[in-house]
Amino acid sequence: MSREECTPYRENLAAYALGALDMEDVQALETHLQRCAGCRAELADYRAIGEGLLAALPRRDPPAGLKRRLAARLRGSGARRSGFSMWWSRVVGRVAWGQVATAVAFVLLVAANLLSLVQMRELQHQQAVLVERVESEQVAIAMLAYPGIQSVPVRPDIEGVAGQMLVDPDGRIATLILWNMPRPRQGEVYQAWLIDEQGGRVSGGLFTPQEEGTFTVVVVAAPDPLEKFTGLGVTVEPQGGSPAPTGPRLLSVDF
Ligand SMILES: [Zn+2]
User: Fold this and answer.
1) What are the residue ranges in the chain where pLDDT is below 70?
2) What element of type H or E holds 126?
3) How far is the CA of 39 from the centre of ligand 1 (A)?
């Protein structure tokens, strides 16, 4: 099951584990859970957190009427008649009611925090990717407007890829504008190599195209002015990059 497919369901898992999900969402989620092991595992985590918290709480005497109110709420509408309600009844049957009241508040708090943490991390990642992309594109635009910039064609080793490289011979920065670069496989990254006059390779940075079938702008940073290099190559390397090229070459550029 793909991550995208799971996203709407994963958002509901914590609420579902706490019996707080609307009936229409419960049915859709339970259908999804039947065929998705990933979401079942995540649900199990939420439940384990809930049970762990219940076990850790001190026993206290319940306020009058709490048991009746909670029982009524848990029986509630049809929304509670699910695998969840059976699990929850078992948990509730094992602990004192005073614990349950505190635990419900606790679990809600923890689940809400976990959920926003996950969402925040995803948002931060998306934002970082976006900022990087905008910065790369700004460099390319700035370079286009810069006098003395040379535009050199990219020679692809794989079909469908096209591109140009903007080079400032006196400077140490070049931008590579590529179309239709495929995304590397899991655990792999693309690495740019500057080729010096002796044929040595110097890393010009790592990159991963963010979307299939569109353009990618890569800013290549050189340790010396680019006039000292004769060209550039891009290879497939393991995540984190390599000290020297090890993987197949995807494209090259002659300055
Ligand atoms: Zn799923």
Assistant:
1) 1-2, 18, 49-117, 144-146, 211-213
2) helix 97-144
3) 4
